């Protein structure tokens, strides 16, 4: 009788071209366990740092190291702002990331904007735009300095595009700015609720999880942001056009 294959042994076949790590919703806070907004899921605020440390240890021990790690947002929880410890908590998590032996690409979720302004994030360690590919851009499509999106090639013929799902959002910007007024106008036109943060009566679709096609309908509410084609800012549109040309 033939020996059964060892499930711990690598499967026969070609070696992967490359690998990368993904981690999301760390949502660290120095708090006892709690629940999400709907009180349907338990949150382990303090223990999330232990899980991050474990993930980093595993990535560092890989025989074939990942080329990078994608941190998909909500790195600290919004509760940090309430207790005025946002900077302290962010520093603690970022110090933990320093143990990682490969680059980290950061995206911004709604909890980043509950804690910080867009200007603060742009000048913080959560801005990983320095890791982007340096591709010449046409003067007419050069994006403005206050947007956060870029693309990079981790391996030949593979291009990653990091998009700002809060490119147009009322979160993290000056309430007296033209952009805030523009976003409020979009909200009022597409959200019939008096409470603009309520998705009641509509499909609940968070902007940071936006994966619908550009022609599909989306829900608009104030805790979210938008990347739908008709609402892309010129900077985001330029980035996507330049990326397509260089793919």
TrEMBL record:
Pfam families: Metallophos (PF00149)
Any one GO MF annotation of this record: hydrolase activity
InterPro entries named among the record's database cross-references: Calcineurin-like_PHP (IPR004843), Metallo-depent_PP-like (IPR029052)
Domain Calcineurin-like phosphoesterase: 20-123
Name recorded for this polypeptide: Calcineurin-like phosphoesterase domain-containing protein
Biological source species: Rattus norvegicus (Rat)
Gene name of the record: Adprm
């Amino acid at each position: 009788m033939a020996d059964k294959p060892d499930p711990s042994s690598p499967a026969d076949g070609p070696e992967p071209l490359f690998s990368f790590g993904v981690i999301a919703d760390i949502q660290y806070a120095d708090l006892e366990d709690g629940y999400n907004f709907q009180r349907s899921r338990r949150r382990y605020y303090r223990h999330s740092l232990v899980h991050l440390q474990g993930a980093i240890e595993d990535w560092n021990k890989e025989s074939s190291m990942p080329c990078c790690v994608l941190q998909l947002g909500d790195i600290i929880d919004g509760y940090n702002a309430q207790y005025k410890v946002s900077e302290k908590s962010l520093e603690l998590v970022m110090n933990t990331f320093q143990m990682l032996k490969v680059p980290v690409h950061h995206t911004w979720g709604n909890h980043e904007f509950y804690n910080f302004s867009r200007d603060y994030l742009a000048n913080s360690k959560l801005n990983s735009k320095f890791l982007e590919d340096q591709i010449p851009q046409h003067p007419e499509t050069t994006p403005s300095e206050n947007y956060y999106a870029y693309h990079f090639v981790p391996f030949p013929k593979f291009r990653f595009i990091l998009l700002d799902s809060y490119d147009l959002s009322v979160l993290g910007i000056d309430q007296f700015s033209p952009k805030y007024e523009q976003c409020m106008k979009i909200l009022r036109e597409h959200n019939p609720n008096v409470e603009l943060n309520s998705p009641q009566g509509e499909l609940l679709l968070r902007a940071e999880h936006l994966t619908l096609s550009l022609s599909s309908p989306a829900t608009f509410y104030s805790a979210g942001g938008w990347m739908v084609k008709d609402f892309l800012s010129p900077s985001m549109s330029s980035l996507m056009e330049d990326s397509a040309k260089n793919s």
